[in-house]
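Supplementary Methods, section 5.1.

A reviewer requested that the exact input to the structure prediction be made available. We therefore reproduce it here, unchanged from the version used in the analyses.
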Amino acid sequence: MHIVMVSAECAPIAKAGGLGDFVQGLAHELVRRGETVQVVLPLYDILRFESIRDLRVIDRGLRVPFHDEWLECWVQAGEVDGIDCVFLDPRSERGFFRRGRIYGETDDPERFAFFSRAILELVLRLDRRPDILHCHDWQTGLIPVLLHEMHPALVRAGTRVCYTLHNLGYQGVVGDSILRQVGLDPGRLLVPDRLLDPREPGAANLMKGGIVFADFVNTVSPRYAWEIRNTDQGMGLQGVLAAKGDKFGGVLNGIDEGVWNPETDAFIPARYGRASLPRKAVNRRALRSRVGLREREAPILAMVSRLDRQKGVDLMHHGIRYALAQDCQAVLQGTALDPAIEAQFRSLQQQTRSNPDCRIELVYDEALAHFIYAGSDMILIPSTYEPCGLTQMIAMKYGVVPIVRRVGGLADTVFDANYSHEPFEIRNGYLFDDPTAAGVESALRRAIWLWRHFPAYFRQLRINGMRADHSWSRPGQRYLEIYAYLLNRQPPRPAPGQL
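The structure derived from this sequence is encoded token-by-token as follows.
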């Protein structure tokens, strides 16, 4: 089948978070299985152009209606790590994607509304009609709406939309002018069963539009799928998600084991696997040397994360101080967009600068992240909510024991060493429920105690985590089943919404 994946991100060329890893990983897996896949992105000025092979202009004739004019948009194409990528390059003085970053502009809704309308114009010019348009998050939420409102012939011809929700914390709530800019009628669409935001009177919710008009909606873990339908994690969209019936489900993400694999990782000094786990000690020494921790017999607690409220930054802060009080070492790598959070961690960095057991690295550095996973013993992930989370999967692949809050994909992948109903060979970490300092301490205390007093059992937790299959193989098969279900190429599974 012909699958067109539309996204604001795709690693390694345009990545701000887990969405970029998702698109890259799923596209790789689908290509490996013999499907025809194109990934469509904006041509940002900050793309890693050195990672794009044979970048070339393939169409100078695309015209996109926007406001009361038609904007010229070049179409470029290239190959990124075996994936065919198409880039939309608007030739406009507005400089939609020439901002030096992917997100964070005041006109983000306009930028991605234009991108969505351009996608529909592009699809009409493709040599082969897509079987599946796979869209992601609020930035592409208008695509299913535009498809049904403006190009019903494509729907009749069989093009179907799978819409994946990566984070309901960002829904694209905008004024009705955004709809007019791309030629949509707010009078038709700003009603409760379409795009009208459930919490802000008169506003359009782009993610809600994607949910309503898509043929199948999923999110990135079974637990998060349940949470956003049944708890306040739905952030106002519980009702519209419930209305999807069995055309909604959760599919756990995978990790790209071509990138995250201690047996082949080119970034780390000593490669290792389950059978050669003692070699991890070489990486522990290398990590200490690289970031400036003293060499001593103590567990290293790591945090590798975006620094924002969703990730539990106050609990990260407390976790570092608690670990140091328990005679452990701690290393954090992360960046913050929120100035207040940035200031909080700059202050912590300054306070601990002379402490030989703590390092705060407020940078994005892919190589350093590999060093941290390879060299640390435990990782703390105290998220307030977590749609899936790749950090815990990567950590386990590297023999790092995760300490996580029992939410979303964290609860789907981490099984408590003491209190899980799973057999011991499946248990791989520590969980806590309350988003409080006491909750963090309860899990950290148990992990540190085991590391100190029963190292053989702690080693088994490492091996259990390394043994688990978090590749894209199983998720890739699940998405192919969703696509086939949408194209009526196989009978629906008993409950396709519960993947």
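The first strand starts at residue 2 and ends at 6. These observations are discussed further in the main text.
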